[in-house]
Each structure stands twice: as C-alpha cells, then as structure tokens.
Amino acid sequence: MAELLAVCRVHVLHPDAGPVGVTAIDKRPVEGRVKVRPLGLYADLQADRANHGGLDQAVYAYAQEDADHWSAELGREVTPGLFGENLRTSGLDVNRAVIGERWQVGSALLEVTQPRVPCQTFGRRLGEQRWVRRFAQANRTGAYLRVIENGDLGAGDTVDVVQRPVHGVTISDWFAARYGVPVAGAPGADEKGAPDPDTLERLAQRLLNAQAAGDVRLSVDMLRRAEQAAGGAVVD
Questions:
Q1: How far is it, in rounded angstroms, from Cα 232 to Cα 219?
Q2: The overall pTM is greater than 0.90
C-alpha cells in the first residue's frame, strides 16, 4: 500500500547565491492536515517563481525508497523535506509514474506533470560535490504534480493511483531520453544503459498523440519540449 509519510512546506527563507537572492527550498514536515489548492500547499511558497511553482509544479513528491538510496550514497539521513519536496511517499515508485496519472491523496486529487530538473540552488542546498550531475545521472528525480481537485491531506493518508493514461511514458522514461542519462531499463537503452538517441523523438510523439486524443494534458514545459523533440530540435 502506498502511503504519505510526511507533508512538508517552507520552514524559513535562506539567503542564496542565485539571482533571486533567497531560496524557499528548506521544507520541513508539518503536523496535522494541510489544505491543497491550485498553487500548492497552504502556507508554502517558492522564491524563484520564474522557474518553480505555478499550476504545473504546484506540489513536488519524492519517494522514501529514493531517499534511502541517497542516504546510503551520502552517508547521512535524507530527512523529509531535505530535497525541497512537499510530499514524502512510501510504497510508490514515483519515478515510474506515468505522465498524467492521477493520485487520490486524502481529499485532494493530484496529477503527475513532469520530472524535477535539478538546479544549482539544489546543489548549494546539499553541499555535495557535483550534486546536480549526480542527482540527474541517478534518474531519481521525483515528480511534480498539479492540483485537479482541492482538498486536504496529511501524513498517514494512502496514495491511490486512480487513473493512468495509456500512452505509458513515465517520468523516468522521459528524463532518461531528454537528458541522455545512462539508466538501464529505459526504453531503447543498450546493454550499457545509454538511451537510444531516437527514443526522445518517439516518446515525444507518443505524448503529443496522447495530448491530441485527450488522454493527457501536458504541462506548458512538457508540451514545448515534446514539440521540439518531435520536430527534431531540443532547445532549452
């Protein structure tokens, strides 16, 4: 059974060397139930709103199983909220979530939109050498979600996958192909785990076909990248 272990929101803003000057990445667990609205958890915020937050990145989920991987790698506990996540889950492979699948968590209905792309603020937060690259290479990104139905949620709630689009493109599939990370088992991966260069175009076309058929509503960012990839050009 998939379960919500912790609900995290911003604890305090910290000075940051990035262009905004502060960061809200310091999320920590809160007690009780928390309201969820289209822009995320009640009383949570993002400092860099040009690159974080918004309707398509309202909530960020990260799995305890992936946190355990990093705890072993880093030699320290990855506590809920350390990666800036809002939801720490257990029993659900967040990275294998299909883009557009829906989760019932408490009375809120959430929809998976896209993977997290690590940034330098995240690197400064962890203070680990080459952290952004290491995090990306592991393809344990977690998932952003949009809010389909307002509600409230809390630690101990079950996480039920109530709808899964038939296109089948997962968070991990897309990230592996889009960023060329060597993840064994990704579609088109060779025996060394390197993604087939044609995979991105094929995945993009599947997503665009699903969008056209009404099977998924891609985020603005995912739609742009899919259109670029299907057209043979990927531009950041």
A1: 20
A2: yes
